[in-house]
Fold this protein.
Amino acid sequence: MRDTKAPTAPHRARKRFGQNFLVDRHYILRIVDAIDPRPEQRIVEIGPGQAALTRELLAAMDAHCATGQAASLDVVEIDRDLVARLTAEFPRDRLRVHEADALEFDFATLAADAKLRVVGNLPYNISTPILFRLCEFEDRISDMTFMLQKEVVDRMAASEGSGERGRLSVMLQYRYRVEKCFDVPPGAFRPIPAVDSSIVRLTPLGSKRLRPNNETRFAQIVTAAFTQRRKMIRKSLAAWVSADAWTAIGIEPTARAEDLSTAEFVAISDWREGSSP
Ligand code: SAM
C-alpha cells in the first residue's frame, strides 16, 4: 500500500454503476491469459473497480519486462470512491487513472503513439452503448477483450440464420472479427449477478472490412430490418427498397432480417444509395 490515507472500510457495490466484482482467481487469471498483455502495448481498462483484473494485468506485463522495469496501464473509472482507492494503491507511473464516464471519454487521447488494446469487465447496464461508442475509435484500436452478459455476447457473435442475430451482430461484425472466448459463472463475482457472463474478443477488420457507400444509410436499414424482425424484408424494408428491386439486388424478398449476411445488408444499402434521387 502506497498511501496510509487509503480508504480502509470495504467498498459497498453500487448497482447504478453495474458493480459486480470478480473474486474468483481462476477466472481472473484465465481472462488475463486470454488478453496476454505485453509491456510495450498500450492497454486501457474500462471500469477497473477494485483492481481484480488490473493487478494481474500489471503482473503479467511485468513478467515480460526487462529486469528492474515495471509496466503501466491506463484505466477509466466513473466511481470516485474507487478512483480514490486505485490512486492510493498504485503509483501514477504504474497506473494512470482517468476518473471519467467511458461513454464520454476521448480514447483517442491515449492512442497518440500506438493503437489501443481495450479490456474490461463492463458494467452490463451500459454495455451496448459502450460498444457503439468504441466504434467511433475503431481505427485507433488494435483489439478489445470484454466480459459481458452471456446473452449479449451470443447476440454479438450470432451469424446469419441464427435467431440471436440482431442489429448488434451486424453493426459489430461489419467492423470486427467477433470471437466468443469462454463463459464465466455468476459465482465468480460479488455480489453474485442474476445472469451468466462470457468473454468476447473484437478485432477490427481494417482494410478487410466492407465499406457501405453511406454508413448512416446502412445503419438505418439494419435498424429498420431488425425493428420488425419477424417480417419478411420486402415488408420491413418497404420504405427503402421497391418491391421490384429485390431481383436486381440479388436477395430473396421473403427473407427475414436474421437471414441476411453483413454483405447483403451492404448490398441493400448501396442499392438504395445508387437509386436515391
Ligand atoms: N473490473 C472490476 C472487476 O472485474 O472486478 C469491476 C467490474 S464492474 C462489473 C464494472 C466497473 O465499471 C465498476 O468499477 C464501475 O464503477 C465501472 N463503471 C460503471 N459505469 C462506468 C462508466 N460509465 N464509465 C467508466 N466506468 C464505469
Observations:
- Residues 17-22, 46-50, 52-53, 76-79, 82, 101-103, 121, 123, 126 surround S-adenosylmethionine (CB under 6 Å).
- The two ends are 66 Å apart (CA to CA).
- Residues 126 and 274 are 36 Å apart (CA to CA).
